[in-house]
């Protein structure tokens, strides 16, 4: 017969494994959700185009631009900038240097 102690031990291990699986699945789901929302957040920055396009006549960003920028998650914006800065080397082009 299986002793009560071994059942409790087995139950504890099963609970620990179930908890670990749940934590990992929540982490993956959160990461996926954040990754899927990043393109949408970046699209909202289109209202900033009149300010960031070279030669634009608009000197200051609009309140809509500032609000859109504030709504973009820091990780999304930083990841995008990191990827954009690597593009020239991945396309076998010289690195960009900005003055």
TrEMBL record:
<protein>
    <recommendedName>
        <fullName>Bifunctional inhibitor/plant lipid transfer protein/seed storage helical domain-containing protein</fullName>
    </recommendedName>
</protein>
<keyword id="KW-0964">Secreted</keyword>
<feature type="signal peptide">
    <location>
        <begin position="1"/>
        <end position="35"/>
    </location>
</feature>
<comment type="similarity">
    <text>Belongs to the A9/FIL1 family.</text>
</comment>
<dbReference type="Pfam" id="PF14368">
    <property type="entry name" value="LTP_2"/>
</dbReference>
<dbReference type="InterPro" id="IPR016140">
    <property type="entry name" value="Bifunc_inhib/LTP/seed_store"/>
</dbReference>
<dbReference type="GO" id="GO:0005576">
    <property type="term" value="C:extracellular region"/>
</dbReference>
<keyword id="KW-0732">Signal</keyword>
<feature type="domain" description="Bifunctional inhibitor/plant lipid transfer protein/seed storage helical">
    <location>
        <begin position="38"/>
        <end position="98"/>
    </location>
</feature>
<dbReference type="InterPro" id="IPR036312">
    <property type="entry name" value="Bifun_inhib/LTP/seed_sf"/>
</dbReference>
């Amino acid at each position: 017969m299986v002793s009560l102690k071994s059942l409790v031990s087995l139950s504890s291990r099963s609970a620990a494994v179930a908890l670990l699986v749940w934590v990992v699945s929540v982490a993956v789901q959160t990461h996926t959700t954040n990754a899927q929302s990043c393109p949408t957040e970046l699209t909202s920055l289109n209202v900033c185009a009149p300010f960031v396009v070279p030669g634009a006549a608009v000197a200051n960003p609009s309140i809509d631009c500032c609000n859109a920028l504030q709504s973009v998650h820091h990780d999304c914006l930083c990841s995008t900038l990191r990827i954009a800065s690597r593009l020239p080397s991945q396309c076998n082009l010289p690195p960009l240097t900005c003055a």
